[in-house]
Amino acid sequence: MFLPYVTVGLFALFFVLYLLVTAFFIWIGSKLAGIKNATIGKAVISALAGGILASISMGIVGSIPFIGFVAPLIALILYLWVLKVVFDTTWGKVFIAWLFSIVAFFIVMIFLGAIGMLIWSAFMPYPWHMNGFIPGRSPL
Predict the structure, then answer these.
(1) Residue 32 contacts by C-beta under 8 Å, 6 or more apart in sequence?
(2) How far apart are CA 106 and CA 100, in angstroms?
(3) How many CB atoms within 10 Å of residue 38?
(4) Residues near 3 by Cβ (< 8 Å), separated by ≥ 6?
(5) FRET partner for 63 with CA separation of 20 to 30 A, picked from 11, 33, 35, 124?
(6) pLDDT tens digit string along 81-129?
(7) Do the beta carbons of residue 78 and residue 53 sit within 8 Å?
(8) How many whole angstroms separate alpha carbon 7 and alpha carbon 79?
């Protein structure tokens, strides 16, 4: 009975978290690229507008036969254009900020993945303990 409300609520929660994390990395990239007046508010606006515009362009261009393969490139150009307009800077600085945000994202994801694997390995049993199997001994 409450499942639709829970689903909508979780979707909204994860969307807001995704937006804030994406904006945080855009903000870091813009600071590292030397963009003046880079704020977290501008990063949130650019993440939201860029994501919406890139998604719409991917849907439209991606559905056109024979040219759909260029849809990711067009979406990237539109996303960078949104960053350029929101931060009011040059294409070069926007591209550098985008690259820095990607690098920062991958560094954090690798770090979080390593922490997750350590936590998982600390609490999961070894596979040979399952079903009475002991290495070097026949299960029969």
Answers:
(1) 96, 97, 100, 104
(2) 10
(3) 23
(4) none
(5) 11
(6) 999 999 999 999 999 999 988 888 888 888 888 888 887 777 766 655 5
(7) yes
(8) 29
Give how far the C-alpha of residue 111 lies from the chain's centroid of Cα atoms, to the nearest Å.
15
Q: Where are the domains of the chain?
A: 3-126
Nearest 5°: CA angle at 114, between 24 and 129? 145
Residue pointed to by tokens 């409300």: 5
Quick one: 121 exposed, middle or buried, by C-beta within 10 A (0-12, 13-18, 19+)? exposed
Which amino acid does the sequence have at 44? V
CA distance 79 to 37: 19
> What is the rounded average pLDDT for all residues in the chain?
85
49 in Cβ contact with 20 (< 8 Å):
no
Structure-block tokens of residue 89: 């800077």
